[in-house]
Amino acid sequence: MNSPLQNGNYHDDAVTLKEDLMTLGFGDFSKTRFYGPQTEQAVREFQSHFGVIENGIADQPTLQKVEEILSSPLQSGNYHDDAVELKEMLMVLGFGDFSKTTYYGPQTASAVSDFQDSHDLPVSGIADEITITVLTELYNEIQSGQIITTYDITFDEMIEVQYTLNPNPQTDLYRFDNGFVHSDYISNIEESTTITGDGVNLRASASFGDNIEENVSGGTEVEFIKEVNGDEYEGSTTWFEIDYDGDTLYVHSSLAEHTQKGETTARVNVRESSSSSSHSYKTIPGGTEVTIVDESGSWYEIDFRDSWRNSKESDTRSYANPDPEENNINQHMLLSDVAGATGSELDEYLSGKGTLDGQGSAFVDAANEYGVNEAYLIAHAVHETAHGNSELAQGIYVDSDGDPVSDQSNPPSSATKVYNMYGIAAYDGQETIAGPRYAYEQGWTSPEKAIIGGAEWIANRYIYGEYNQNTMYKMRWNPVNTGVRQYATDIGWALKQTSTVETIYESIANPTTPRYDIVEFK
């Protein structure tokens, strides 16, 4: 090869070549006259990618190919008829949201760059032949109903990242289970026994018969001595031996409540069982009052009926499993496709659902205006607002700073009532403070405004956002950059909405056919 543009040589044209290669997404080096090993490697990668004979030399066929791509009409600043179809394919695949004109501007170039980056292609923002081929193949697949997108992360790596977050993945699976705290972390224990029935007999022995000593009303406090066995009542033989006005008497356990309350001495884990190696449901701060229901060695079992707790890794793995054979495929439904519902069809489903009742047309308008599936929007709203009955759905009065007023039942005339239908900015533990404040900032002063405005926020931030989170699965787990911009902490957030989506589709007379983008880990 006689070309001066090969390894070991110096040439003025090497500067231009390097600039062109970097523009096309190959290499990152200083723009000097030296054609060294780095330049040779970048040229080899270019040749391999575009089907030119691979020799590492910038020969005539290679330079012609570089010029051909750099002269492509499908790059920023140009007008071309093919830009219309290109934009259509990009939007269907979740990259960008723009008017389908012949203009290929910076927005289109940015969407092409994002697509190239997401599919391990050289990033140039130019719609070269390889980019168009990959884009067309994926578009055709998705038009047929289902595609599989593989991400550059393993499932194990994704799960590992979830447990570096604060909070960890959350669940309500164990919400009715008590918790355990080591006795070293509980102090100031106080006991109380209160009669819970009305007109309860206190007896001379733990039996039913002619042994009534006193009759007391509900709420009467007595002093607990110990538990004893006695006559059975409602399946239980447990009685309380008590002291009442200096007399030792007995009452069946179903008619009284014996409680022990203590206070945590420091920040401590509430665990699943009486073992320091068992799963930690949650960490609670020192000074927290707890109700003790039992003792197990050096552990106290406490009443811990708390909705949200740290999820076990096994449960997180189960809910995060993207396999449509294992979990409902609708978590992979493309949310950029509208369902084709009418307002009246949606109103049938929304009937009786709090402030969502009668808002079918608002969901249709939101879907059409922002390109977000209306069945999903309703499923999301129903899930977040407890069927339209949550405080955020019913409306919260706020002051001029967006902070909730103290007296919601009798707000000042200057207060503004705001709504938040998707839990937007309603951070865990701050739902009724941060949620209405954000709604106030956005002007969501009616259910309709909250429905449509919230759909715009979801579209911009997630469905057409930088991470292409255009399915419920991607919104929850974000396989592009897992741990970042995940919509919820609940491991079941995506799957919990799938049955509602199915129900709504069944109520639509002429629905569009759902399409799916199934996540696959490497």
From TrEMBL:
Residues covered by region (Disordered): 261-283
Q: Tell me the ranges covered by the Mannosyl-glycoprotein endo-beta-N-acetylglucosamidase-like domain, including all copies.
A: 348-517
Per its UniProt entry, which superkingdom is the organism in?
Bacteria
List the GO molecular function terms: amidase activity
Domain SH3b span(s) in chain numbering: 190-259, 260-317
Q: Name one Pfam family in it.
A: SH3_3
**Name of the molecule in the record:** Mannosyl-glycoprotein endo-beta-N-acetylglucosamidase-like domain-containing protein
Q: Which organism is it from?
A: Alkalibacillus haloalkaliphilus
